[in-house]
Amino acid sequence: MDVLGKINRKIKSLGIRKKLYTSLYNITAKILSSPLGVRLLSIRRDALADERKISLAITHYNRANLITGALRNILMDNRINEIIIYDDCSSMEEFSKMQSITKKMSNKISIYRGEKNLGPYHSKVKAISKCKNEWAIILDSDNALSRNYVDRLYQMSTWNTNLIYCPSFAEPNFDFRQFANTELTLYKVKELILKNENIKLLRNLLNDGNYFINVQKYIECSKINEFNSVPAADVIVFNYSWLQQGYVLYVLNNLNYYHRIHSGSFQIGSWRNSRQIVDGIINSIANDKE
Asked: Which pTM value belongs to this model?
């Protein structure tokens, strides 16, 4: 009886600690993602002798409460000299809220609002088209770059316009490090699919996003679907077009970002549409005849 009592007390103690941890985590996350927290905790980074500059392109749709968290670790980074926020025709309430939150955070932030909702694929193209630099990071508004994301890019002396640089880890849930430093051509992806090697992980990688891209090449490639509706799985739709044109997805080792889970992360209708599109593209690649 005494042993059972100890076990019950232990379970109760663990439950209390878990609740305490969750509460502390939520409080910390709110502080880190608040406008003041982002400004105070962002590390100032200078471009030094490297003259290359990067744009940051963020698409936004009814996520005003998440937008500042996307600016963590990069707001004071002078290597990123412009931040483009493209609002995909959110409600006026959400747009005004997002605008009031971000407009005073930095003078390098530019905000654009679409007259109609285009969806994730075409809104990303709009955001990228506003970038003045040759290279840009595409970032979902509910994610955040790691502290070393930009450092990792500048460790390379040159950036290859025929590559899309893909993160190797979407912390904490999607670990792509087994593909690190792998050049994924259409042929290589087909080979992995046919071998059925880690197919679930590969599917997630191909539809992950938060990439480093060449602006001009991205815009040119996106024109294949210029007049097509892309209701879901926009990343893999673009990547399929990219691979078909002979370009490469390169999983860059130690290029990480934070995948923030929230109440809108998993919507049943969107998830089903996404699953259908991903399945269709995976099958198309598997059956592709060169």
From this structure: 0.83
The CA-atom distances, in angstroms, between 260 and each of 56, 66, 79, 174, 254 are 18, 9, 24, 11, 18
Alpha-carbon distances, residue 132 vs 53, 78, 136, 266 (angstroms): 10, 15, 9, 33
Mean pLDDT over 157-164 rounds to: 97
d(CA 245, CA 242): 5
Distance CA 237, CA 111 (A): 26
DSSP string for residues in the chain: -HHHHHHHHHHHHHHHHHHHHHHHHHHHHHHHHSHHHHHHHPPPB--TT----EEEEEEESS-TTTGGGGGTTTTTBTTEEEEEEEE-S--HHHHHHHHHHHTTT-TTEEEEE-SS--HHHHHHHHHHHT--SSEEEEEETTEEE-TTHHHHHHTSS---TTEEEEEEEEETTEE-GGGTTEEE-HHHHHHHHHHTSSHHHHHHHHTT---EEEHHHHHHHHGGGTTS---S-HHHHHHHHHHHTT-EEEEEEEEEEEE---TTS--HHHHHHHHHHHHHHHHHHHT---
Q: Which two tokens stand for residue 159?
A: 């950036």
Amino acid at 209: G
Residue 35: cis peptide before it, omega within 30 degrees of 0 = no
How many Å is the Cα radius of gyration of the chain?
21
Q: What is the pLDDT of residues 8-54, one digit of tens each?
A: 555 455 556 656 645 664 565 566 556 655 655 565 666 566 789 99
Reply yes or no on whether the pLDDT at 265 is more than 60.
no
Assess if CATH 3.40.1280.10 describes domain 35-286.
no
Q: Where are the domains of the chain?
A: 35-286
